[in-house]
Design brief:
about 30% helix, Thermophilic metalloprotease-like, four-stranded parallel sheet, eight-stranded antiparallel sheet
């Protein structure tokens, strides 16, 4: 296991040695486009951030010539948001907007706002999201918590009420059906570095993120193509097997999750509604599918802490008990009240919407760190998610109404929370309808058909 967050781990040699590659222009940028503004000798970190931003727009959302781009993040993410905006314009974006949120403002509302106003979303904000259905912008969301303890001591009920459910209701169907090309990427900042290392060393965090993003490779774009091909092979092997159930078993975990005949395994690269290939999460190391929300039995213990993103609360040491597909009991060493508040307040949050497999070949795992950020930590090990299931992981799921999806076994909910259960000690089996187990991972290696 990686060191705990309150420790300062020894830095892996691969991170110490990583040097930022020179940023490469997109091959399809017309020669008539003005070049980037000239600059004096740039610092190595500046070059790394530029290379990172270029990778996000070329591989993450694959910005098309003349396309609009929307970047979403917190005010502390501004340096990364601006670098991505510039990179998007360099590859031909027509218009780039940055939508900032401020969690400090959210805490003030939780403490002082009238109860009936908590979580309120204004009409113009909803209309802005609905407009995505028409002009299909590339959507880039930034993560990396700059205020990890901000919600400590907040009233759990008021914190739950502060969730912008009306916005989530508009936003989630657009991204979960891949109507637009979208990606989630990290935005290193001092507080996030403090959480990871015990000191606000942003340069060090950038080196770790660069390694996780394969920016330490000679050609990061080609490295991503090869990586996505490997994940696609695993996806195809799992789909060919047609497993009825997936079982996780190891210390503190013995959980069997049922699939449906319509469940389809997917990997990082996928097309949006217009056929544009994109990578939904960067980094990504998983193959994943939608389970049958009615079929989960047993217990799990998480192997990495995580934030309940909508309420900015850290959860650690979570244990869940399942019966007939439902979370029947939940306990945690930290953040337990916030977990209970979400499970009780959001319909269908007690049922699973995703099962994902990650093995020790993960570039995120090789950094040797725990990030306290689920974008990265879900790629440390295999995981499940409670809440919404993605229609794209369900045969013809995008053609069904939400009610039809639920009836067919695909969970629909206004939340999606990943929790890591994988580790070298947790083995994963696929079970057919006859109940015979087939090894998928052993000793933290993906062994299905020796892929």
């Amino acid at each position: 296991m990686p060191p705990p967050n309150d420790a300062t781990p020894a830095e892996p040699a691969a991170i110490q040695a990583a040097e930022p590659p020179a940023a490469k222009p997109a091959a399809d940028v017309p020669a008539t486009r003005p070049p980037a503004a000239p600059s004096a000798v740039r610092e190595p970190l500046d070059a790394l951030i530029e290379a990172y931003a270029t990778l996000v727009v070329r591989v993450g959302v694959n910005v098309q010539l003349g396309q609009r781009v929307v970047i979403r993040g917190m005010v502390e993410h501004a340096p990364v948001a601006r670098a991505i905006a510039a990179a998007a314009y360099r590859v031909g974006a027509s218009h780039v907007s940055i939508d900032y949120t401020d969690p400090v403002l959210t805490r003030a509302a939780v403490d002082y706002a009238p109860r009936e106003q908590l979580g309120r979303v204004l009409p113009h904000q909803l209309e802005g999201v609905r407009a995505w259905r028409e002009d299909r912008p590339a959507l880039i969301s930034l993560t990396g918590n700059p205020h990890p303890t901000l919600m400590d001591g907040a009233d759990p009920a008021r914190l739950a009420d502060s969730m912008p459910l009306a916005m989530i209701k508009e936003f989630l169907p657009i991204v979960s059906s891949n109507l637009v090309a979208w990606t989630v990427v990290g935005a290193p900042n001092p507080a996030w570095a403090q959480t990871v290392f015990g000191e606000p060393d942003v340069d060090r965090l950038w080196r770790a993120v660069a390694m996780a993003m394969r920016l330490d490779q000679e050609d990061p774009v080609d490295a991503w193509r090869q990586h996505l091909a490997k994940l696609a092979l695993r996806r195809d092997l799992l789909n060919a097997r047609g497993f009825d159930r997936i079982r996780f078993h190891g210390p503190g975990t013995d959980l069997t999750v049922g699939l449906t005949p319509s469940s389809r395994w997917m990997s990082g690269g996928m097309p949006n509604a217009d056929g544009v290939e994109f990578v939904a999460n960067m980094p990504t190391e998983e193959v994943f599918t939608a389970p049958d929300w009615r079929r989960a039995d047993g217990a799990l213990s998480t192997t990495a802490p995580f934030f309940l993103m909508t309420v900015n609360t850290l959860v650690d040491g979570l244990k869940l008990e399942f019966g007939d597909g439902e979370i029947r009991a939940a306990s945690a060493t930290r953040g337990e009240d916030a977990v209970h508040a979400q499970l009780e307040r959001i319909p269908r949050a007690r049922h699973l919407g995703e099962v994902a497999i990650v093995d020790g070949d993960s570039a995120v795992r090789r950094t040797g760190l725990t990030y306290s950020d689920m974008l990265f930590d879900e790629n440390i090990g295999s995981h499940v998610a409670w809440g919404n299931g993605y229609p794209t992981t369900f045969e013809r799921g995008t053609e069904l109404s939400p009610e039809q999806r639920i009836e067919s076994g695909l969970n629909q909910s206004n939340t999606h929370i990943d929790v890591v259960v994988g580790s070298p000690e947790v083995e994963i089996d696929g079970l057919g309808v006859d109940g015979q187990p087939v090894p998928i991972t052993r000793g933290d290696v993906f062994v299905l058909d020796t892929a």
